[in-house]
Design goal:
The protein is mainly α and 156 residues long. The protein folds into two domains: 1-37; 39-152, Alpha-catenin/vinculin-like (Four Helix Bundle (Hemerythrin (Met), subunit A), Up-down Bundle). It has five helices and no strands. The chain has helices at residues 2-36, 39-62, 66-90, 93-120, 124-152. Helix 2 runs antiparallel to helix 5. The N and C termini lie far apart (66 Å). The relative contact order is 0.11.
């Protein structure tokens, strides 16, 4: 009788161990699938956002008159309400925050440039402020790239 009990205990323990290992493997597989499910979508969204943000930032740096300002604000609208909205759905918090900071930085540069065009065009301090904002835009672009690369598992 004691042999039957020992065999039964080992049988139950083996079954429980097998079930536990199977559950652990399934959990790890599920986490891996979840992490990679939207990888291609995220990569495309990040690339599209970055391209549009750079186009917007370049336009901000080169705007010189009212037509340019209208076009710049149109680009800004496209980035904020289309590109960022898609990115917001797919991204992690660090990528979303980096994108938000980039958008805010470009908007601030656009406002500064608009002020500069409207009459502070001869003000040396205003020009220096614009240059500083331009350098900050480059830093924010790099910060977004770093956050996106980290999330996507791409080496710099």
């Amino acid at each position: 009788m004691s042999t039957a009990i020992v065999v039964g205990i080992f049988t139950l323990a083996g079954g429980a161990l097998g079930a536990g290992v199977t559950a652990l493997i399934e959990h790890m597989r599920s986490k891996h699938e979840d992490a990679n499910r939207f990888h291609a979508d995220r990569q495309a969204a990040y690339a599209s956002f970055l391209a549009e943000a750079i186009k917007w930032a370049t336009a901000v740096e080169h705007m010189t008159g009212q037509m340019d300002q209208d076009w710049v604000w149109s680009l800004g609208h496209q980035v904020r309400f289309t590109q960022f909205a898609l990115l917001d759905l797919l991204s992690s918090e660090p990528v979303r925050n980096a994108a938000r900071e980039l958008v805010n930085c470009i908007e601030q540069a656009a406002l500064l440039n608009q002020e500069y065009i409207r009459g502070r065009g001869t003000d040396k301090d205003a020009l220096e402020e614009l240059m500083q904002q331009s350098r900050q835009m480059v830093e924010m672009i790099d910060a977004f790239k770093d956050a996106a690369r980290q999330e996507l598992g791409i080496a710099a």
